[in-house]
Amino acid sequence: MDGMTYLAVGYFGMVVGIGLWTYTVVIRSRRLSERLDSIEAALPSEDAKEH
Amino acid sequence: MKPRLGEWLLLTGFLGITSTLLLAFLWAPSVSLDAFESPAAQRLFYWHVPSAWAAFIAFGALFLGSAGWMFKRSERMWRLHVAGSEAGLATGLMTVWSGCVWGAAEWGTPWDWSDVRLNTFGLLTLLAVYLVLGRNSQPDGIETRDTFAGFGLYGFVLVPFTYIATRIWAIRHPGPVVGTGDEGSINGDMGLVLFLGALSFTALIMGHILTSMRITKCEQRIFQVQQVLDKEVL
Fold first, then answer.
1. Does B83 touch chain A (CB under 8 A)?
2. How many Å apart are CA A16 and CA A2, to the nearest integer?
3. Looking at CA atoms only, how far is residue B189 from chain A in angstroms?
4. Which residue, B105, B118, B136, B71, is CA-closest to A9?
5. B19 to chain A, minimum CA–CA distance in Å?
6. Cα separation of B224 and B233, whole Å?
7. Within 10 Å of residue B166's Cβ, how many Cβ atoms?
């Protein structure tokens, strides 16, 4: 394989990999925040104040 | 939902890394054809060195978090341990992957089992694999945390060992090109791209650590709230 093509394939794989990783971290954080908000809303107010 | 600081840092870091790769590919000067077997693959250097730098930041966070949990029993420090191990795994894999791509092009083999730098860094990445997989498969508790924090503390010894490995045993991995005390072997344009890469990777890894700490905090809080709700039902 030509040197620059080899390099482009290597770079492309790394950019896609790091992009997917960044995306999953952000989405996981947001989903958990939403889940926490909804579960805290279900708590009786006394319990919610304790934490 | 309004983006938090960690998410801004992740986005900024990712954009910076993408710019670094474009600059490395299209703008950074070529190296001498005589000095390398595969001069084109040398451009991976602009990804490989900053990702290794980010890995050392991540393993530093892992060490701090492990020590903070061991000696202070701090929940915040435990979250730092978790974030450091995940960030160490991600950056460790990035470094190993880019190194293997370069090694395959330059040396004709992706890995050299006789090179100290390669093997100590490989062990560091395996340590992160163990910590991430182990924590996900074990129930959370003081004993589990102590075990993983112990590995995080003692495993950190591999960081300075990895750093000095090429200065003591120059086997296959190239020696340092920055911070050597002399002028080094990279010119101004190369140094600029490398600096942008280091800044971008630093932003990305700090963003990951902050976001990951928040994820762990949310998980812990959800667990607490579920216990309260279970008591209400029972």
1. no
2. 21
3. 20
4. B105
5. 11
6. 15
7. 18
Per-residue tokens: B149: 């924090």
d(CA A12, CA A4) in angstroms, rounded, equals 12
Single-letter code of the amino acid located at A40: E
Output the average pLDDT for chain B.
Answer: 84
Q: Per the structure block, which two tokens stand in for B193? A: 């791209």
Helices assigned H by DSSP within B138-233: 142-155, 158-168, 188-233
pLDDT in tens, B15-73: 998 898 888 888 877 766 665 666 666 778 888 889 999 999 999 999 999 999 999 99
Chain A positions in Cβ-Cβ contact with residue B229 (cut-off 8 Å): 39, 42-43
Among the partner residues B1, B18, B101, nearest to A15 by beta-carbon distance: B18
* Domain assignments of chain B as residue spans, ordered by start: 5-25+42-177+188-233
Quick one: which of B86, B28, B121 has its CA closest to B208?
Answer: B86
CA distance B160 to chain A (A): 26
